[in-house]
TrEMBL record:
Pathway: Amino-acid biosynthesis; L-cysteine biosynthesis; L-cysteine from L-serine: step 2/2. It comes from Variovorax dokdonensis. CDD domains: CBS_like (cd01561). This is Cysteine synthase. The gene is cysM. Its EC number is 2.5.1.47.
Length: 300
């Protein structure tokens, strides 16, 4: 008898309909809003997909082998997912992250056996990415580079997009995703646009001055190389206050305990819903809320 492994538990996450948030307004317009529960992945986020994909495909190309050291700059979820994937496949994992990210994320990475290098808050992810490249140049390991690695969007083209298309029976009209590395939105867009070019792809990014974990507005010189602007029809800015309030509402009103970036995507989805009719709007619930408890977003 062949048993499943933890790798087999990645993907095929549920797509669930919201039932209470703005329910009357959505129903009046004939709209349905669906959340793709990526927190159901074994390491708790959408990043489980590209993390395992990047490692396995680098192995297939002969670029890495078990026992090697992998280095990655991360804002949290990719680091956790890579730490899990490295544990599964037998790698030493060194993760570089800004010091102001939530303690839950750091503790989870360490639980999977990863080593952490914390960088100054003032430098943001840009400094962490630069340091990762410096460490590679010094021969300290290899960077998979989620920001430039085509295996990141590729896995969403191969899995996330098809899952959404099948679950909605092709009825999806809008896809909303937070924009961080942009792997999810780029890969899903490529698949959905092949199926139906009329599907609208909408990215959520933070307003100037807002800090929303998992969503970034990159300076031009740090824009992820995997990002294809042709894959995104519209970008909508969301404020930190709106994202955090929606995060609390998701838990209280829908029973969906999600992170702040997922709530930002929902805020954008609701904004779209007020302007369209007979729409099927899918947003990505990127991760779970338990890794944000120390941030103060949820009431003590």
């Amino acid at each position: 008898m062949k048993y499943l492994t933890i790798e087999d538990a990645i993907g095929n996450t549920p797509l669930v309909a919201l039932q209470r948030i703005d329910a009357q307004e959505n129903a009046k317009r004939g709209n349905v809003i669906l959340g793709k529960l990526e927190g159901n992945n074994p390491a708790g986020s959408v990043k489980d997909r590209p993390a395992l994909s990047m490692i396995k495909r680098a192995e297939e190309r002969g670029e890495i082998k078990p026992g090697d050291t992998l280095i990655e700059a991360t804002s949290g979820n990719t680091g956790i997912a890579l730490a899990m994937a490295a544990a599964i496949r037998g790698y030493r994992m060194v993760l570089i992250m800004p010091e102001d990210l939530s303690i839950e994320r750091a503790q989870t990475m360490k639980a999977f056996g990863a080593e952490l290098v914390l960088t100054p808050k003032s430098g943001g992810m840009e400094y962490a990415r630069d340091l990762a490249e410096q460490m590679v140049a010094q021969g300290k390991g290899r960077v998979l580079d989620q920001f430039a690695n085509g295996d990141n969007p590729r896995i969403h083209y191969e899995t996330t997009g098809p899952e959404i298309w099948e679950a909605t029976q092709g009825r999806i009209t809008h896809f909303v995703s937070a924009m961080g590395t942009t792997g999810t939105i780029t890969g899903v867009s490529r698949f959905l646009k092949e199926k139906n070019p009329a599907v609208q792809i909408v990215g959520a990014q933070p307003e100037d001055g807002s800090r929303i974990p998992g969503i970034r507005k990159w300076p031009e010189e740090y824009l992820p190389k995997i990002f294809d602007p042709k894959c995104v029809d519209q970008v909508v800015n969301v404020s930190q206050d709106d994202a955090e309030e929606m995060c609390r509402r998701l838990a209280r009103e829908e029973g969906i305990f999600a992170g702040i970036s997922a709530a930002g995507a929902l805020w954008v989805a609701q904004t779209i819903s007020r302007t369209v009719e007979n729409a099927t709007i899918v947003f990505v619930v990127c991760d779970r809320g338990d890794r944000y408890l120390s941030t103060g977003v949820f009431p003590a």
